[in-house]
Amino acid sequence: MPRRAIAHILPWANVGGTELATLRLAEAMRAGGRDTVIYVPDDAAEVADLVRDHGFALARYAHAVPRRANPLPYLVATARLALDFRRRRIGLVHGADVTGACFSAQAGRLAGARVSSHVRCGHPHLTAIDRWLLKPVERFLFVSGATMAEQDFAWPPGCAQVLYDAAVPPTPLPAPAGARAHYGLPEDALVFGMAARIHPQKDHAGLIRAAARLRARHPQVRFLMAGDHAQPGHRETFARLDALMAETGTRDLFVFSGFEAQMARFYSAIDVFVLATHTEGFPLVILE
Questions:
Q1: Which helix (H) or strand (E) holds 195?
Q2: pLDDT per position as a tens digit, 137-196
């Protein structure tokens, strides 16, 4: 009888550290001979392209939020996902983060699969429904000890562990002059770089305010921001940042490059890496 496959459940519609870390995990499983299916939300075109580019089987699922007043959409989505798990002979459902587990854990258990979930940041204020959705998870994988200490849900003894992420070995960097030319940055600028989703969890606003204070003393300073800002859910955050840059007079200091597939080029273009953020579990960009 063939071995059952592993399903990785990606929770969001854009590419970031969670997606890249999960792909690295899936590649390690594939190297060990395990069949893998990667599930992405219905509206995650960018993530779907990334999965295909890495040669993995791709499947879609619906983000149906359970509501007491009308639980039917969630129940239908869960039943459909469970049937798909059975059809694909999924033996292990892995939530790439807590959100992925919330949408898939019940379906995994209905399909007779084991269920695990990564936990990549603190969740100090979960709702009662969130905790209920995580009940079927049999093992939690925390990216750091600090992350394990910042959770608002319980797990049985022996069902949680810290599993650190890993960065890919560095690749040769292109020439800085060419990298800066690609982003439209002056060769003689002092360039700070940040790679992160354009998301309220990150403190791009604080960095913009800091840039306004730096400008008087260091007029040659520039800021290169890599991270998606065009997908739904990120556009509103970027619009607020754009308004803040206009208010502080810093718009000409910032380059928002969008999703960057060639991170070696990004690192070659900057002098200083910065991560302005409100909370992190174990940021891959620091390792890189």
A1: strand 190-195
A2: 999 999 999 999 999 999 999 999 999 988 777 678 899 999 999 999 999 999 999 999
Residue with tokens 């359970």: 66
Query: Is there a domain that residue 167 lies in?
Result: no
Q: Is the CB of residue 191 less than 8 Å from the CB of residue 180?
A: yes
Q: What is the CATH number of the domain that holds 211?
A: 3.40.50.2000
Mean of the pLDDT values across residues 13-26?
A: 89
The residues pairing with 118 across neighbouring beta strands, listed in sequence order, are 141
Alpha-carbon distance of 79 to 196, in angstroms, equals 34
Coil vs helix vs strand at 28:
helix
Helix or strand run (H / E) with residue 115: strand 114-119
d(CA 162, CA 58): 28
Q: Which residue has the tokens 């949680």?
A: 160
Q: What is this structure's pTM?
A: 0.84
Helix (H, G, I), strand (E, B) or coil at 202: strand
| 209 vs 220: CA distance, rounded Å | 16
Structural domain of 198: 176-287
pLDDT digits 0-9 by tens, 30-54: 999 999 999 999 989 889 999 999 9
For residue 37, the SS3 value is strand
DSSP for residue 13: S
Condensed to tens digits (0 to 9), the pLDDT of residues 260-283 reads 888 899 999 999 999 999 988 888
* SS3 at position 81: helix
Describe the crossing of helices 45-53 and 17-31 by its angle, rounded to 10 degrees: 30
Q: Is 8 in a helix, a strand, or coil?
A: strand
Residue 170 lies in a domain: no
